[in-house]
Amino acid sequence: MDSGGAIELGKKRNATRSNNNRSGATTKEKAHVNLTESSQMAKEANVKNLVLTHFNFTNVDEDATSAEIRKKYIGKILYAEDLMVLPLENEVHSHNSISHSHNNEHLPEIKNSSKEKLSLQNEVSITEDKKNGVRIIKSNAIPNHTVGQFPTKGNPNTITEQNKEYSIDLTPTLANKITFVYDLGIDKGRPSYVFGVAVNGVKFEPSANEYFRNIETNEPNYEWTLEPLSEEVNLGEDYNNAHVQPNGEYHYHGTPSGLVANFDKNKMTLVGWAADGFPMYYKMGYKDPMDANSGVIQLKSSYTLKQGERPGNGVSAPNGIYSGKYVRDYEYQNNYGDLDECNGRSGVTPEFPNGTYYYVVSDEFPSASRCFMGTPSNDFKIGGGRNQTQQMQNQSPQREEKPNENTPPSFANMLKRMDANNDGKISKSEAKGNIKENFQNRDKNNDGYITQNEITRRN
């Protein structure tokens, strides 16, 4: 045996040929590869099947070789003379009852780096309905830049025009609690929300309906959601960190490279709108969040890759070192970077000179946020709302309760975010976002402070 590696493929294998030496006797040789290394690689990569390749003049002693591999690896061991003719199995699954497969899902990342010009034209309109307090985004979901090749390996779908319409809050307010794009928390579960829409009308959907699967039963473990932006996960994304859903909708998982290519690096540039109504900017922001004249810097995420190894057994849950393959491989560290757990912060922006909360699309994890600080519109709920998005999980959508318009925001939450001197009230200099913008109206007794009994949501 001349090579060995951890490559995830189908269950079938080629039969090993029997070869004779010059004396006519059949030879059996143990692998010449470093089996300890191959075994460790397979363990860390959490693969279902370890494929060992060898030259066709060698009759491998499979028993002896397997015994060495079993010291670290508990999955299936396959022997193949020629990896290129090892048959693949198509794993078919469905999103909203639409069946499709990612035949090469677990092969090394396929670089869909081609730049194709679409014959379809981008159509998008973004308007304000001040009477009803909403921003309306209508789009055919066709990008205004070149895209990768579709269909392609890992993504068998063709880009088609859509009919999308979203309504988001025109004057959003920080909510009492964070809402996640996943149904089990900030870093696990099935997709629950599309995060937002880019200024060109293409949606940001950072989550993926892909998980670690039990190597014995193939059942998904929803606690371990695959990270679409990882080089270990192949979903056929193009150079825009985007691909196509079964219904033909093109969407971004991360930085839309083609869209931001001509953004001025010395300016803070709006890249989209989040489902809760707050704006999204691409990676640059003011050095002093409240001073538009303080210069522009690249804002840093506060997420880092965990150290050590995952706690799973490699069968029902992944083991191996934290590598970024799963969303849970990352953790938020308060004040590590410039941004909060939702990859955002409060401050002034070109569109909001009096200040607002805003999200940042960063080049590093999480890129597009995985949670909302405001209340997301039901138009972005996966499996529900106006758009009935196709990238969905076989589950019943949970009903999103919208707060009554007169329900006050959590004052305790506001104090946590704004009360710098811990005096139990918010001064004008401490106020952020819409509270700062509407400070005069909120400060009913004109004493220069906002207190708990003054925080009520106005119609």
TrEMBL record:
Residues 416-446 have a biased composition (Basic and acidic residues). PROSITE patterns: EF_HAND_1, EF_HAND_2. The lineage of its organism: Bacteria, Pseudomonadati, Bacteroidota, Flavobacteriia, Flavobacteriales. InterPro entries: EF-hand-dom_pair, EF_Hand_1_Ca_BS, EF_hand_dom, RibonucZ/Hydroxyglut_hydro, YHYH_dom. Residues 1-32, 376-459 are annotated as: Disordered. Transmembrane segments: none annotated. Residues 388-397 have a biased composition (Low complexity). It holds the Pfam family YHYH. This is EF-hand domain-containing protein. Residues 406-441 form the EF-hand domain. It comes from the Bacteria. Residues 16-26, 448-459 have a biased composition (Polar residues). One of its GO terms (molecular function) is calcium ion binding. It comes from Nonlabens ulvanivorans.
